[in-house]
Amino acid sequence: MEFLIAVSIFSVVIIAIYSTFSGGMSVFRKVINVDLSQQKVLLKIERFAREVRQEAPCSKPLFFGSKTRVSFSGFSDFIPSRITYYYDSQVNTLFRIAQPLPEITLPGGSIDPEVEPRSGSVFLKRVKEAKFAYLFLDLKKNDYVWLEEWPYDYLPVAVKLIISDDRQEYVKIVFLPRA
């Protein structure tokens, strides 16, 4: 009888220890997965920032900015290119397109303003929203202002990228050294 009581108490203790350990491991796995997905987003944002910051000097105006798309000159595989990031809300994806300058230069020497979305590669999936904004020094107000569209022929002071996913919103402001 004493043996049966000891075995049952031992069994209850072992089951309690196992369930606590198992629950802790499942929480640990969830935390690791969240951290990895957040790290992926942060690494992609840093890549965007590096490319915008290192915009290649070019005599032709290649910078274009709207609320959901930004284009600028840069290098893709050591080839001068127009790099475009744009957000497609139908598939909740941020795309990146690199078009070599010889392919987009028209016969008169001007740059084709159109970007062909079909040639883009997926930059970041499962994005609820991606927006761009452009910092402008308004000399009339003597203050900096964020614009959703960039109508000027010169570079903005900074570009802001805002990405929202299911968990949080990421904001990255990139100051352009050549502005």
Please write out the topology:
Blueprint lengths: L1 H52 L10 E2 L3 E8 L2 E10 L4 E8 H4 L16 E4 L4 E10 L4 E5 L10 E7 L4 E7 L4
Antiparallel strand pairs: 1-2, 2-3, 3-4, 4-5, 6-7, 6-8, 8-9
Overall description:
The structure is a single chain. With about 180 residues, the chain is of the alpha+beta class. It has one domain. Helices cover about 30% and strands about 35% of the residues. The strands form 2 sheets. The chain has a 5-stranded antiparallel sheet with strand order 1-2-3-4-5. Strands 7-6-8-9 form a 4-stranded antiparallel sheet, with helices on one face. A hairpin with a 4-residue loop joins β6 (about 130-140) and β7. It is elongated. It starts with a helix and ends with a strand. The model has no long low-confidence stretch (mean pLDDT about 85).
Q: What order do the strands of the largest sheet run in, or round the barrel if closed?
A: 1-2-3-4-5
Kindly, what is the distance between the CA atoms of the first and last residues, rounded to a whole number of angstroms? 86 Å
Output mean pLDDT: 86
Shape: elongated
- Structural class from helices and strands? alpha+beta
- Rounded to the nearest angstrom, the radius of gyration is 25 Å
**Beta-strand content bin:** 25-35%
What number of domains? 1
Q: How would you characterize the largest beta sheet? A: 5 strands, antiparallel
Give the proportion of residues in helices: 25-40%
Give the tally of β-strands: 9
Low-confidence stretches: none
H/E element sequence: HEEEEHEEEEE
